[in-house]
Amino acid sequence: MDNTHESVDSATTEDQGPLNRQDLTDRSPGDSSGTTPEHLVLPGEPELEAAAVALHDLTGAQPELLGPAPAARKPHPAAAVQPDAEIGPTGRPWPKLPPPEPPSSHGPAMIVAMCNQKGGVGKTTSTINLGAALVETGRTVLLVDFDPQGSLSVGLGVNPHTLEVSIYNLLLGRNVSPDEVIAKTEVEGLDILPSNIDLSAAEVQLVSEVAREQTLLRVLEKVRDRYDVILIDCAPSLGLLTINALTAADKVIMPLECEFFALRGIALLTDTISKVQDRLNPSLEILGILGTMYDPRTLHSREVLERVVQAFGETVFHTVIRRTVKFPETSVAGEPITTYASASPGAEAYRSLAREVLARCHAA
Ligand SMILES: Nc1ncnc2c1ncn2[C@@H]1O[C@H](COP(=O)(O)OP(=O)(O)OP(=O)(O)O)[C@@H](O)[C@H]1O
Ligand SMILES: [Mg+2]
């Protein structure tokens, strides 16, 4: 697991990777002269190109690796753009997204996997907070902790060590019903299927199961009608558990840290998604790429985001999650940012993401 993020103080911009420090200080935040940063060769660049091509094959989106500024691109059909709209952090005009209507009835759920095999990119944080933001729109949401680390469970106040049954028992136990495992959270409408270290054994034990890749899907089918959205928090790996998550999912969200090494491995991830689409789940779609831990004060963060938008175009969500110490604080508090710091920019960002997610799903 990659834990490079842990060396970065979330409240400062001091240590943003092994970039030439001069690059970060040369230009002020408002300076747009770095829109084509040829001087900066990102280590994931060849991979980024490969991933953009793979994504093109998957979604039909046109990669424009060395193309014009992102603002010149066609807007996502899900969102009407006002002519005088302000430019968002991705360099594109902010779309006009109406507040989502509460659904008239619940279910069957759309299943979304939060997936990136790189560690510490904000998968768990995004699963919890997107889930909580969707609940605020009147949706019922089930969060699936599909990582043996159990971070999602901890982040919602569930102690993984004291669980008598967890998602592991649903995957491999014959006589366990989802109701025995599903736990309510402090947020009404937000339920969780918790996990703990037992789940790591499932990776090995599932190998001998018939239709092993569909095991999670079989579990989720039993509860799908009760929820509007099911979000799966994947582990930082592309092993059998993640393949199960991608097989169960209708859509994938790829959180991508706006940081030096973030682009590495993206080609491998898009390749895996493409294989799952070919062999196991033809209806799987990439819902979007989510920029996380964005720090607009650093040129580096802005450049990484710009490269990602150049490569992946409209697949990138307009909403970008900024780096703030509030998120680690919410993990300690065991609640989503939407309740812990309801008026904070972080909470607003996940509400904005929820609107984009719903708009994209309805446009699909
Ligand atoms: N926007 C953010 N700003 C600052 N810190 C953040 C942000 N998002 C997440 N974090 C923190 O970064 C760490 C990693 O985040 P998170 O656990 O969500 O990543 P992950 O991709 O799920 O990691 P893993 O791959 O280990 O499961 C956590 O301590 C979290 O609180
Ligand atoms: Mg996680």
UniProtKB/TrEMBL annotation:
<dbReference type="InterPro" id="IPR027417">
    <property type="entry name" value="P-loop_NTPase"/>
</dbReference>
<comment type="similarity">
    <text>Belongs to the ParA family.</text>
</comment>
<protein>
    <submittedName>
        <fullName>ParA-like protein</fullName>
    </submittedName>
</protein>
<dbReference type="Pfam" id="PF13614">
    <property type="entry name" value="AAA_31"/>
</dbReference>
<feature type="domain" description="AAA">
    <location>
        <begin position="111"/>
        <end position="286"/>
    </location>
</feature>
<feature type="compositionally biased region" description="Low complexity">
    <location>
        <begin position="68"/>
        <end position="80"/>
    </location>
</feature>
<dbReference type="InterPro" id="IPR050678">
    <property type="entry name" value="DNA_Partitioning_ATPase"/>
</dbReference>
<dbReference type="InterPro" id="IPR025669">
    <property type="entry name" value="AAA_dom"/>
</dbReference>
<feature type="compositionally biased region" description="Pro residues">
    <location>
        <begin position="95"/>
        <end position="105"/>
    </location>
</feature>
<feature type="region of interest" description="Disordered">
    <location>
        <begin position="1"/>
        <end position="109"/>
    </location>
</feature>
<comment type="function">
    <text>May play a role in septum formation.</text>
</comment>
